[in-house]
User: Which sequence fits this backbone?
C-alpha cells in the first residue's frame, strides 16, 4: 500500500503532467517549439500553470518524505528533493520576465528557481543507488555516469561498474538509474547551449529536458517501494 509521500509523487506525475498537457491545448498563443514552459505563467491560464506546478511541489516534498522515512540515515538525498520542490515553488511565485523586457529581480529569481530544479534533480539522481543500499562514493559514481555518457555503446559495460565498488547488481533498476542521470545531465548541457545560442527551438528542447524530471520522480517512486 502506498504511503502519503508516494501518493504525492504519483499526484505530480499523473495530475501535474495532465495539467501541463491541458495548458498546451488551451493556450494556442504560445508555441511549444519556441516558447519556454514558464511563458504560461505570464499568459492566459496562469492559475492553471500555478496549479500544475503546485502538484510537482508536492511531488518533490513527497519524495523527500519517502526517502527520509525509508532511509533516515540519508541526509543529502532528501535535502535535494526538497531543493527541487523549492525550485518549483520559486518559479510559481517569481514569474519569468516578458520577452523583450529587461531583466528584473523577479525574473532573476525565476532563473535561479529553474536552475535549482534541474540541478537538484540531476544531483539527486546520482545519489539514487543509496536507495538500493549502496554506499555513496561521491566523484567515483559521477565518473561512472560520465563513462556511460561519453562512450555510448560501452554504456552497457559501465552499468556494471558499481559492482567494482562492492555493489550488488539490480538488473534493470540500475540501468534505469544510469539512464535518468545521463538524461538529466545531457539535458542540462543542451539547454545551456540552446540558451546561449538563442535557438528558436529552445521551447521544444526544454520540454524534452523536463521529461527527465518526471523520469527522476518515477525513479524515486519505484526505488522507495523496494
Assistant:
Amino acid at each position: 500500500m502506498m504511503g502519503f509521500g508516494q501518493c504525492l509523487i504519483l499526484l505530480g506525475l499523473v495530475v501535474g503532467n495532465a495539467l501541463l498537457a491541458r495548458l498546451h491545448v488551451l493556450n494556442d498563443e504560445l508555441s511549444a517549439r519556441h516558447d519556454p514552459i514558464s511563458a504560461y505563467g505570464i499568459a492566459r491560464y496562469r492559475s492553471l500553470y500555478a496549479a500544475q506546478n503546485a502538484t510537482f511541489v508536492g511531488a518533490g516534498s513527497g519524495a523527500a518524505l519517502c526517502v527520509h522515512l525509508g532511509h533516515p540515515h540519508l541526509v543529502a538525498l532528501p535535502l535535494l528533493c526538497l531543493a527541487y520542490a523549492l525550485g518549483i515553488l520559486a518559479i510559481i511565485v517569481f514569474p519569468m520576465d516578458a520577452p523583450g523586457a529587461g531583466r528584473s529581480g523577479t525574473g532573476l529569481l525565476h532563473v535561479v528557481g529553474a536552475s535549482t530544479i534541474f540541478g537538484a534533480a540531476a544531483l539527486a539522481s546520482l545519489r539514487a543507488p543509496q536507495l538500493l543500499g549502496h554506499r555513496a562514493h561521491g566523484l567515483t559514481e559521477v565518473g561512472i555516469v560520465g563513462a556511460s555518457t561519453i562512450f555510448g555503446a560501452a554504456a552497457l559495460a559501465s552499468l556494471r561498474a558499481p559492482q567494482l565498488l562492492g555493489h550488488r547488481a539490480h538488473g534493470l533498476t540500475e540501468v534505469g538509474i544510469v539512464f535518468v542521470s545521463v538524461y538529466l545531465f545531457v539535458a542540462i548541457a543542451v539547454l545551456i547551449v540552446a540558451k546561449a545560442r538563442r535557438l528558436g527551438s529552445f521551447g521544444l528542447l526544454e520540454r524534452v529536458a523536463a521529461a527527465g524530471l518526471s523520469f527522476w520522480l518515477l525513479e524515486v517512486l519505484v526505488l522507495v517501494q523496494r
Summary: The chain has one domain: 4-224.
